[in-house]
UniProtKB/TrEMBL annotation:
Domain EAL, first and last residues per copy: 23-285
UniProt superkingdom: Bacteria
Portion of the full sequence shown: 765 to 1051 of 1056
Organism: Kitasatospora putterlickiae
The protein's name in its UniProt record: Uncharacterized protein
């Protein structure tokens, strides 16, 4: 067994080294990419499950790379969090996403108002490291001021790692954001240590039920009851629910039956380029 272990070590070492170099290289490239604003934002529609109306877009970052192609966030967000590079990257995301939202508003707000619909919202992911940064609230303020979008059109998606922090600064910042009028969403709800008490402690306006719960909806009675229960409680507290990762019509139908208002997933649209998002808006806005 020992010999086998040794052999395996030899076998894996080059791969390990390659991994480490890639990581180092990724860090340096990230710096350049941040300096040159080399990232792209894609936008995934969030829709009203009953009417099919477009309600919001979630901004999802991508990194077009010479040799690696379009690099997905799972490959660099964690690294950027560790190194602190997420702070400037996240500020860029907020600025770009709110600017894009201003363009959507120019395109669709009057027609939407005629149909009784509020301006399109933009959901932006915020990592724990980014929220912890002392300048974060100012970055949000600046993005609102520069873009001119109404604060209610911006929703910050926070994970439980942000909400678990219950120190004074976190509370004050959360309250300030609430007072600014921006929406606050709990992302990936149901994973990790998510607790319904966050809904009571923080000014939460949106709860996003993680895809893993939606996957099992049609398969188990318990899953269904769980999602229905969460939806009911949220509704009672005036918190809007978004079901994540809807891929099949059956899942959408079960969600509408239980009264879940909003959803997002490949069934409706993949993340879109800004141009594709614009035509999606045009096709989903009846004049
Ligand atoms: P997330 O916030 O939970 O975003 C949803 C992810 O699920 C996205 O992956 C989206 O493309 C994918 N998705 C949407 N609908 C479906 C579906 O029906 N089926 C399946 N299988 N997947 C679906 P993406 O774009 O690769 O992003 C991964 C994660 O990276 C995000 O998870 C988020 O945590 C993080 N992320 C993305 N953009 C940003 C950003 O600008 N800042 C920060 N801090 N994190 C970001
Ligand atoms: Ca998210
Ligand atoms: Ca999510
Ligand atoms: Ca996720």
């Amino acid at each position: 067994a020992k010999a086998a272990g040794k052999r395996q070590w030899c076998l894996y070492q080059p791969a390990l080294q390659a991994g480490l170099m890639a990581r180092h290289e990724l860090n340096e490239n990230l710096d350049t990419a941040i300096a040159e604003s080399a990232f792209r934002l894609y936008y995934q529609p969030i829709v009203d499950l009953q009417s099919g109306d477009l309600v919001a877009f979630e901004a999802l970052v991508r990194w077009p790379h010479d040799r690696r192609g379009m690099v997905l966030p799972d490959e660099f967000i964690a690294l950027a969090e560790e190194s602190g590079q997420i702070v400037p990257l996240g500020a860029w995301v907020l600025e770009r996403a709110t600017q894009e939202a201003a363009a959507w508003h120019a395109l669709s707000t009057p027609a939407r108002a005629t149909s009784g619909l509020p301006p399109l919202r933009v959901n932006v992911n915020v990592s724990a490291r980014q929220f912890r940064d002392a300048g974060f609230v100012d970055v949000v303020r600046d993005a609102l001021r520069t873009s001119g979008i109404p604060p209610e059109s911006l929703v910050l998606e926070l994970t439980e790692s942000v909400l678990m922090r219950r120190d004074d600064r976190a509370r004050t910042d959360m309250r300030t954001l609430g007072e600014l009028g921006v929406g606050i969403a709990i992302d990936d709800f149901g994973t990790g240590y998510s607790s319904l008490s966050y809904l009571r402690e923080f000014p939460i306006s949106v709860l996003k039920i993680d895809k893993s719960f939606i996957d099992g909806l049609g398969l188990s009675q318990q899953q269904y009851a769980l999602v229905e229960g969460i939806t009911r409680i949220a509704d009672t507290l005036g918190v809007q629910v978004i079901a994540e990762g809807i891929e099949h019509p059956e899942q959408r139908d079960l969600l509408t039956t239980m009264g879940c208002p909003l959803g997002q997933g490949y069934l409706f649209a993949h993340p879109l380029t800004p141009d594709q998002a614009q035509s999606f808006i045009t096709h989903h806005t009846t004049p």
